[in-house]
Amino acid sequence: QTMLDGRKTLSSIVDSDWARNVVVRRKIVDSYLGPMSVGVRKAPFHIAADALVITPEKLPLIAASHTSHAVLGSSRAAVECVIWLLQHGVPPESVHWVIAEDMWFVSYESMQPDKYVNTAKIFWNSFADCKSLPELEFALEDAGIRYRVDSAHRPTAFHGVSVTKQEITQLRRISHNIVRKGRVSEVMVDRLVFGNEEEVLTGTGTLYIDCTEDWVSQAPSPVQIYDTNHITMQLVREIADNGPPCSCFSASMIGYLEAIYPTEESKKNLLATPMLPPRSVVEALRNELCSMKARPNIRANRAVANFLVLGRPGRLSSLRTADLRQLFKDRGDEDERRQVLANLDRLTQDSFAKLHPSPSASTDADADACQEGALEASPCASTEAEFDLSPQALGSGRSAGSLTLDNTPYNLDSASTLMRQFSGQSMASSAPFDFDELELLEQRQILRAGLAS
User: Fold this and answer.
1) Strands (E), 35-128
2) Residue 9 bridge partners (DSSP)
3) In 10 A of CB 85, how many CB atoms?
4) pTM above 0.90, yes or no
5) What is the tens place of the pLDDT at every residue in 42-101?
6) Are 162 and 109 within 8 A, CB to CB?
7) Using an 8 Å Cβ cutoff, are 66 and 206 in contact?
8) Other C-beta atoms within 10 Å of 60: how many?
9) What DSSP string describes 277-298?
10) Dihedral, CA of residue 428, residue 382, residue 251 and residue 109, to nearest 10
11) Cα–Cα distance between 243 and 163 in angstroms, integer?
12) pLDDT beyond 50 at 395
């Protein structure tokens, strides 16, 4: 709330008596989704007087006193609750998992540094070769980078939830006990009532674990991230990389752009396009398509390319330069890139149009327009005197942890140091990202680490 003298008033949604007046010196950094608190959230269904419904954090306290359990929702919290129950001796037939629709999961192992280059190559080849959306989905499953719980059901949802091989094996133990009746409208002592008036018996005394709180489904339409006096934190399309949406890395990039271009709102908005978190397979692929369209512009901006390649918690920061070269080489020349983009667009266009039939500010078409505008933007260079990433200002220092002269990935702390050096040498230049310079600095880091040890 803004007061007459320009000060802002902060108030609490938990304690109505709490309030503080603050002076905003530069900008307000706002939450995209608004306040989220388990303590004040209202369940999205009616709860009968004698039904016992808890939130996930209370499960370890009272699970042992019940012989039947029903996990509601398909979020990461729901996955963890199901696995926790099974690991603590609850028989699979005593666990009901209630979901609105089946969901594809990301293979955790496939996104690790030693597998990521191969995973990215599989994605690229699948985008290029597949003739239909189902063929693409099953190709990724056959390659071991997407999982589903039940092979008899083709998932339609995708929220970016990652699971390990051990976790998906545990989830499959209750595949016969998954309830697919849509969304729950009422929870009763011994049964669930759904929106279509269907009922499912769960047994007297069932403990219901409410995991339906899902930030993905609550997400409103994207808004411009940077304004003169305001920053609205959101997921950033440009850093989508075939894996789960990374809110931490999005926040890092938003802060990084604000630091190097503090007064250039248009430039920052061209480099950081907000995106809706994916709720379906098609939306996830459309986000990836837009990210792929933006990559040439990102690579042409040295400051941003340095950050994305070397900054934490980005997935590329743990790769050696040789792996990065291979990653970009696998994506082919410009003609091949256009063909891949065109095929992915064809595979997803009709399905996306059915999900979003009416144009709005959040449609993919507008997002594409933003990306096309970004491609025409000139390479950026920071000229702000107060922001100095040079080695002299930050200090080169010694690498934390150990590095060897073989081909194993280097320590992330070393990558962070390397980013400072490379960024410091590149910030004033408008030339595109240069692998040769990066490799030279990497070799220096390895040599320093070897001498230090």
Assistant:
1) 46-47, 52-54, 69-72, 95-98, 103-107
2) 21
3) 24
4) no
5) 888 999 999 999 999 999 999 888 999 999 998 899 999 999 999 999 999 999 999 999
6) no
7) yes
8) 10
9) PP-BHHHHHHHHHHHHHHHHHH
10) -20
11) 12
12) no
**Angle of helix 302-310 versus helix 247-260 axis, rounded to 10:** 150
Give strand ranges (E) for 73-226: 95-98, 103-107, 146-147, 157-163, 178-179, 184-187, 191-194, 199-201, 207-210
Residue 274 parent element (H or E): strand 274-275
Mean pLDDT of the chain: 77
What span, in angstroms and rounded, lies between the C-alpha atoms of 60 and 72?
16
List C-alpha distances in Å: 314 to 61, 107, 212, 259, 425: 36, 17, 29, 18, 21
Beta-sheet strands, E only, within 95-249? 95-98, 103-107, 146-147, 157-163, 178-179, 184-187, 191-194, 199-201, 207-210, 230-233, 235-236
370 contact partners, CB below 8 Å, separation of at least 6: 269, 270, 273
How many CB atoms sit inside 10 A of residue 189's CB?
A: 15
What is the per-residue DSSP string for 297-341? Answer: HHHH-HHHHHHHHHSTT-GGGGS-HHHHHHHHHTT--HHHHHHHH
CA distances to 115, 185, 418, 444, 445 from 448, rounded to whole Å, are: 27, 62, 12, 6, 5
Task: Render 145-161 in DSSP notation, one character per residue.
Answer: SEE-S-TTS---EEEEE
For 51, the token pair is: 């039904």
Task: Report the Cα 280 to chain-centroid distance in Å.
Answer: 14
The count of residues in the chain is: 453
User: What does DSSP assign to residue 427?
Assistant: T
d(CA 339, CA 327): 18
Q: Which residue has the tokens 């970016």?
A: 160
Q: What is the pLDDT of residues 156-196, one digit of tens each?
A: 999 889 999 999 999 999 999 999 999 999 999 999 999 98
Interior CA angle at 81 toward 147 and 137, to 5°?
15
Q: State the chain's maximal CA–CA distance in angstroms.
A: 71
